[in-house]
């Protein structure tokens, strides 16, 4: 299952995503955690010290390797140089599984030990001084989008992505890559404004959006959120001494998290697992193609000097029917 955490800057989305990752890890579930935010804080929220967090390999700096691997023997893609962030897989493409070893994970993922389990952590990489004035951060998050476009995840497997703040994810088609999106909102006008914007943008794409109310301290806060977001409000989270200790770099054992907050995490997982039966791989693939054509027309064809529409394999639908791996490759059988 693919899960996104979004929200305005300072809403607590990184904290909530890290708590959910820890919650999954305690059950032994396979988890890939991805920090796709311009401000890279997920590693620290998962307990890494400053040096280890800074040493995490940036996906954005390994984009060529990612493209080379994913391209595989796909005859519709002339070279890795012609792949853009929205390039969809087709016959011959290499696909990624949550539970496997491959060169992409070797180069970009690092294990993080948490209470009760280990997760794979991947990071887009920070926006550096050398990028200022000459690069767009979305070119780095393109590595995450390619990863998600070529990912085959099944029930009981979790990919949790801490997204860019606000509505930046709408600069690409990445917002459609998830089974469910949790929008973390504070009980303030600014807190719910991102919700309204996200809801409006995602309306026509079948995005399942649920609100997690954060920093809710009173009945008035709860009433405000209910009035503003209605039935999309899934759960609320209040003050946490455990989180405060974690932010100081001294997290207690995760089992000591407050009962109310632990229950909130259980409700998030229940909502996530319930979306599995709603999966529509044909729609997922169709949306992938839609955004690829949109990017091709607006800038991709000119940038690569190639008609990127030719990269689309009309008979290919991403899905979970996997053929026997060959030399470590995990491939899908196209379904009509």
From TrEMBL:
Q: Which Gene3D superfamilies match?
A: P-loop containing nucleotide triphosphate hydrolases
Q: Which Pfam families match?
A: CbiA
**Annotated InterPro entries:** CobQ/CobB/MinD/ParA_Nub-bd_dom, P-loop_NTPase, ParA/MinD_ATPase
Q: Name one GO biological process term.
A: negative regulation of cell division
Q: What sequence ranges are listed for the domain CobQ/CobB/MinD/ParA nucleotide binding?
A: 7-219
Molecular function as annotated in GO: ATP binding; ATP hydrolysis activity
Cellular component GO terms held in the UniProt record: cytoplasmic side of plasma membrane; cytosol
**Does the keyword Nucleotide-binding feature in the UniProt annotation?**
yes
Q: From which domain of life does this come?
A: Bacteria
State the UniProt keywords alphabetically.
Answer: ATP-binding, Nucleotide-binding
For this entry, the protein name equals ATP-binding protein
């Amino acid at each position: 299952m693919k899960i996104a955490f979004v929200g305005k800057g300072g809403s607590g989305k990184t904290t909530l995503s890290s708590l959910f990752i820890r919650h999954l890890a305690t059950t032994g579930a396979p988890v890939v955690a991805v920090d796709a935010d311009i401000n890279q804080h997920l590693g620290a929220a998962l307990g890494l010290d400053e040096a280890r967090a800074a040493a995490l390999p940036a996906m954005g700096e390994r984009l060529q390797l990612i493209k080379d691997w994913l391209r595989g023997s796909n005859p519709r893609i002339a070279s890795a140089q012609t792949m853009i962030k929205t390039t969809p897989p087709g016959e011959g493409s290499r696909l990624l599984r949550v539970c496997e070893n491959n060169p992409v994970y070797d180069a970009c993922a690092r294990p993080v030990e948490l209470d009760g389990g280990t997760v794979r952590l991947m990071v887009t990489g920070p926006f550096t001084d050398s990028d200022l004035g000459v690069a767009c951060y979305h070119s780095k998050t393109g590595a995450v989008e390619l990863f998600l476009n070529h990912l085959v995840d099944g029930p009981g497997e979790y990919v949790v992505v801490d997204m860019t703040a606000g509505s930046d994810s709408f600069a690409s088609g990445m917002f459609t890559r998830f089974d469910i999106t949790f929008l973390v909102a504070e009980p303030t006008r600014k807190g719910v404004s991102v919700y309204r914007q996200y809801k409006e943008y995602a309306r026509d794409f079948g995005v399942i959006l649920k609100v997690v109310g954060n920093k809710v301290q009173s009945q008035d806060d709860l009433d405000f959120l209910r009035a503003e977001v209605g039935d999309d409000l899934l759960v609320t989270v209040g003050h946490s001494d455990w989180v405060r200790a974690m932010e100081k770099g001294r997290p207690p054992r995760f089992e000591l998290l407050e009962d109310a907050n632990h229950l909130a995490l259980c409700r998030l997982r229940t909502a996530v697992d319930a979306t599995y039966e709603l999966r529509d791989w044909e729609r997922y693939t169709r949306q992938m193609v839609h955004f690829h054509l949109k990017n091709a027309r607006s800038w991709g064809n000119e940038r690569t000097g190639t008609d990127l529409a030719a990269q689309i394999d009309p008979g290919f639908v991403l899905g979970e029917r996997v053929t026997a791996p060959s030399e470590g490759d995990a491939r899908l059988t196209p379904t009509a």
